[in-house]
Design goal:
This protein is α/β, with parallel strands linked by helices and about 350 residues long. Helix content is about 35%, strand content about 20%. The strands form three sheets. It has a ten-stranded mixed beta sheet with strand order 3-4-5-6-9-10-11-12-13-14. A two-stranded parallel sheet has the order 1-2.
Length: about 350
Amino acid sequence: MKREEKKIEIKGFTLSELQNYFHQIGEPKYRALQVFNWIYNHLSTDFFEMENIPKSLRQKLSETCSLQTLNLVTTQSSLSTGTKKYLYSTLDNKKIESVLIPEGERNTLCISTQVGCPLDCKFCATGLMGFKRNLSVGEIADQYLLTAKEIRKEKITNIVYMGMGEPLLNFENTKRSVEIFTNELTVGLSRTRITISTAGIPKKIKELADSGLRVKLAFSLHSAFEDVRSKIMPINKKYSLLENLEALKYYSKQIKTRITFEYTMLKRMNDRDEDVTALTKLCNSLPSKINLIPFNSIKHMNPAGISAELEPTSNQDIQRFADKLRKNNITIMIRETQGDDIAAACGQLAGKIKKTLT
């Protein structure tokens, strides 16, 4: 029996890659432009929907190429904030999550770049999953495409690479997905509406600075002290805060942008007066701002060790901490918790839907 050949996954091809593919199969490049537009602008998941493509080519593409990378398993909506969590299954049955966060006229989609995460940050549910594999470009892009198709009457205005995984450890696929999102023939999102978050891979931060993408960069800081950061973020033992700060200064200078420091507030660990002093010194060393993030429970992962001991700083103490930093002329934002009732808040994604009492 003849073995059926695996179809080519063209969802995830950049425009130049799709043009090269069409050239290889003897089709004019302008057909690639049309298909590219159908996939990424019209959100098409079926070649036969592509009305301006000859029927013979549609048939040819349907037999040799695939537009499917993810299946939507289920969704869950927060009753308090309207935040919506999407649980997707990959074709090899791995589970990933994306989160849509409505904020007035903004709809921000938080997307994943890996199944699980290898970094083992102690305050993050994804880290407790362990690492399974990198997502393909198509799987990264499909989180946007399938979500956009599901909420057709609304519009996704911003994308943040802050879901499951470390984007800079899946650098090429992350980079190519940004190229797709910012292409004027597709969704055409401005680079200023895309943010990549990293726990700190200095070499890749510099490579991103030189890539020409010019997206915003968020750095998971969580402590300005090397020893504390190493305790809650083991990656700091490999790539020190000092090394990362040099890379961040390079990024800020190259892109001419402020760095956003993400700072999860942990009781008696990083909310002390000495932390205010250290953060002030750090922020004065480069253009930056700080997002203070309430620590969101990861009890749904049954954590052990340090993870089980972590406690949230109270809202009142977060406000006091912010006020002290503002007095030192540091730009501060306190991020409101979005979707913690469905385990969709920052640090809670773990490839599962949280059970709720009925």
